[in-house]
TrEMBL record:
GO terms for molecular function: FMN binding; oxidoreductase activity. Residues 3-147 form the NADPH-dependent FMN reductase-like domain. This is NADPH-dependent FMN reductase. Gene3D superfamilies: 3.40.50.360. It comes from Nostoc piscinale CENA21. Signal peptide: none annotated. PANTHER family: CHROMATE REDUCTASE, NAD(P)H-DEPENDENT FMN REDUCTASE LOT6.
Length: 192
């Protein structure tokens, strides 16, 4: 069993990407993952002023401390992004920037989406660099959902069977990395 955090960064009132989040959470749970949904709107820490590590011990907001513990004990991450001006959502980057060392030596899978045909892949490419800089290993597969308004219904149910099949292959790769890096951290620790 893996503990997998699902990060989602939209603050919009009419959030289309929430359908992707529901789909991904369901698929992870079907494969017996313990899923923690990290919604930037729910964890609203405000614009980054102080990273978690910059607080004196015991002085960080309780919700920030809770999330730090979830990140530290996670086996991996799925990071969902829409595409804003060919880049990732500001709410997502702001939320994730509150942490750093907590992410180290854990894999991340990138899911992108858009209302158009490209599926947010330009944001996904930006996100790969962002996550790598934070110490995560990003899996080579990216999962793009194009025309999200038609691809998933409001409950996150896919409208085409191919979406579930493609995501299964994506999860096969993520789980391989989760298991490998979990074993390395347990048996050999980390370089720092």
């Amino acid at each position: 069993m893996f503990k997998t955090l699902v990060f989602y960064g939209s603050y919009r009132s009419d959030r289309q990407g929430i359908k992707a989040a529901k789909f991904i959470i369901d698929q992870l749970q079907q494969r017996n993952h313990e899923v923690i949904f990290v919604d930037a709107k729910e964890y609203d820490f405000g614009i980054l002023d102080r990273m978690y590590k910059e607080y004196d011990p015991g002085q960080a907001p309780a919700k920030m401390t809770e999330l730090a513990e979830h990140i530290r004990t996670a086996d991996g991450f799925v990071v969902i992004t829409g595409e804003y001006n060919h880049s990732i959502q500001p709410g997502l980057s702001n939320l994730m920037d509150h942490y750093l060392e907590e992410y180290y030596f854990r894999p991340a899978g990138i899911v992108s989406y858009s209302v158009g045909g490209f599926g947010g892949v330009r944001a996904a490419i930006q996100l790969r660099s962002f996550l790598g800089e934070m110490g995560m290993v990003t899996i080579s597969s990216m999962f793009a959902i194009s025309k999200i308004g038609n691809s998933l219904d409001e409950s996150g149910t896919p409208q085409e069977a191919s979406l579930t099949k493609r995501f299964g292959q994506f999860l096969d790769e993520l789980e391989w990395y989760e298991e490998a890096l979990q074993r390395q951290r347990r048996e050999k620790g980390t370089p720092y």
